[in-house]
Each structure stands twice: as C-alpha cells, then as structure tokens.
Amino acid sequence: MKKRIVFTGGTGKAGRHVVRYLVDQGYDILNVDLVPLEQPGVNTLIADIADSGEMFNVLTSHFGFEGFETGKGPGPIDAVVHFAAVPRVLIKPDNETFRINTIGTYNVIEAAVKLGIRKIIIASSETTYGVCFAEGDKDFHHFPLEEDYDVDPMDSYGLSKLVNEKTARAFAMRTGADIYALRIGNVIEPHEYDRFPAFLANPMSRKRNAWSYIDARDLGQIVDLAIRKDGLGFQVFNAVNDTITATLPTREFLAKYCAGVPVQRPLAEFEAPLSNRKAREVLGFREEHDWRKYVPR
Ligand SMILES: NC(=O)c1ccc[n+]([C@@H]2O[C@H](COP(=O)([O-])OP(=O)(O)OC[C@H]3O[C@@H](n4cnc5c(N)ncnc54)[C@H](O)[C@@H]3O)[C@@H](O)[C@H]2O)c1
User: Among the atoms of ligand 1, which is closest to the Cα of residue 91?
Assistant: First the structure.
C-alpha cells in the first residue's frame, strides 16, 4: 500500500523537487498551495495555511478523483510535510511574514495531530542560526553549527521559523506524535550550480549561509528518510549537503575568514560549517549531489 502524504507548499522552489523525489519513491501526494503544481499524478488543493478550517478540511479530503472509487470516503494520511511559507524577508511586510508563517504552521500541525496523524515534517531554516538576515556583520558563536546551538535570529522571518520549532515541540509533547523540523540550508536547484564560481571567488558573500547549501534533490532524500524514521518525538535536523562551499579545507578556511570564532570539535576535512552530521547519523542521509560534480574548478 502506497504511503499517503499531504505536502504543503509543493509548488515552490524546494517543494517541487521534493514532491518529484517522493513520487519517484512511490508515495501518493496531495499538494496544498495557493498555486497549482504541474506534476503528473499530483493534485493541488488551493488552500491557505493561515486558515485553520481549510487545513482541517484538506486533511480530510480525497487526493484525487480515484478516491471516489472505493466508496469508503477519504483514506488515512500517513504524514504531513509542511513547506508552505513566506520563504524570506522582503517579500511581504515583516508582520505578514511572521503571521502567515507562525499561524500557518500552528494550523497545519494542530489540524494534523487532532486528526490523528502521527508524523509531521516542517521546514525550518538556516536563518534560525541568526546571521542570515542579521543587521550588520554578526558573527556565529562557534562552529560547527549543530542542532544544539543557541539559535538567536533578530529578523522576523528567522524568528517565525524559531517560533515554529517551539510550536512543533509543544504539539509533539502534547500528543506523542513525531514532529521533525528541518533547518534547511540555502536551496540549490539543478540549474543553479552556475552560481558557484561567484561563491568561490568571493567567499565572504556566503557567510550569511554559513558556506553551506542543500541540493533540492538531496532535500528530497532527507524528507523521505524523515518520513521513514519513526519514534523520535520532536527533533531538529540540519538539512544541508556534506561540504563547505569553498576550495580550502574547512579548518583552514574558518581560521582565515572567521578568526577568533571557536571551533568546538574536530571537523572532517571539507565538512560544511552548518553540519549535517545528525542527519547522516540518525536518518542515514548520504548526499548524491556534491557541488564539486557540477562546478568546474
Ligand atoms: N529556498 C531556501 O533557500 C530555503 C532555505 C531555508 C528554508 N526554506 C523554507 O523551505 C520552504 C520552501 O521554500 P521555497 O524556497 O520553496 O519557497 P517558495 O516561496 O518557492 O515556496 C513556498 C510555497 O508556499 C506557497 N504558499 C505561500 N503562502 C501560502 C499560504 N498562505 N497558503 C498556502 N500556500 C502558501 C507558495 O505559493 C509557494 O508555492 C519554506 O518554508 C521556506 O521558509 C527555504
């Protein structure tokens, strides 16, 4: 029996690659978005995450016309993957970004757990580490950035993502559901590797992303692994690729460009400063799309 997944934000930059990856793994997907997705076999319900009634409703819906054939009503949902959001600052006014992201995530998680869904994966962000949308040149507290870092965003988008992690933790504690928050790094689509030569030529341009990235297809693998891994309660996982977006080994690079910022543990030679060690060790993530495969050096 195929696992049935409701995916919010599947029409977006990250979502469309992750949805395709999940379809290829054999999942049945219903997309929930404000904009339809052009993906054969995946229906989009146009619905607003900021509307709680709509979220309860989409989670009790048929996925498509084939649902009517059983005569038994909509089938059970195995997991919700929640990506819909205002994905950065400066798209909407700050108060709207905060409102849509926090209320939207609250609505999706609340509806899911109250309808008995036991697995929810939400899109958190590298911005929780506080430097991405900081005013001025803020330093990281230490390296590597791992899930136990004292996250301290000052911008309204990063703050909304941090609030969402707290919402996830509260509902996981309240219900015993598994709710995993993915701190997603800068998403790179397959056609975007032509941006890397500029990253390498101007290393400080990537400080706000902690010299890290996530290939959109590898993000699909992480979501798939998170759907398969049960029983962990509330968890945070950095969702990034393995290595630094620079040509120098990480220790040398950080000594040169972040002198004075402590490095707290031994690093693998090219380990990304925003580390995916937990995703590799706990979920079994093995990246397939190292940027070095696609970027001439
Ligand atoms: N792109 C990145 O580098 C990056 C990095 C870290 C985290 N994230 C997070 O990953 C997720 C996906 O980001 P993305 O880059 O694909 O963004 P995107 O804007 O391309 O996609 C977001 C999708 O959500 C939908 N959406 C927005 N508001 C909605 C609402 N009120 N109701 C229903 N749907 C709504 C949009 O129509 C869009 O299709 C977001 O949660 C974002 O915050 C993205």
Answer: 19
CATH number for the domain spanning 110: value is 3.40.50.720
Nearest CA to ligand 1 atom 7: 125
pLDDT at 297 over 90: no
Residue 11 neighbours by CB distance under 10 Å? 23
| Pocket-testing residue among 20, 34, 151, ligand 1, by greatest number of atoms within 8 A of Cβ | 34
Looking at ligand 1, which atom is closest to the CA of residue 35? 37
Distance 99 CA to ligand 1 centre (A): 14
Q: Read off the pLDDT of residues 229-245 as tens digits, 9 standing for 90 and up.
A: 999 999 999 999 999 99
Query: If you average pLDDT over residues 79-92, what whole number do you get?
Result: 98
For the CA of 11, the nearest atom of ligand 1: 39
Q: Is residue 183 part of a domain?
A: yes
Rg (CA), the chain: 19
Classify residue 266: in a domain, yes or no.
Answer: no
Could you list the residue range(s) of the whole structural domain that residue 228 is in? Answer: 4-131+146-187+215-241+274-288
For 147-188, write each residue's pLDDT tens digit.
Answer: 999 999 999 999 999 999 999 999 999 999 999 999 999 999
* CB-based pocket (< 6 A), ligand 1: 9, 11-15, 33-35, 48-50, 83-87, 100, 104, 123, 125-126, 184, 186-187
Number of domains composing the chain: 1
- Answering whether pTM is above 0.85, one says yes
Q: Residue 79 has what pLDDT?
A: 98
Question: What's the gap in Å between 126 CA and the centre of ligand 1?
Answer: 14
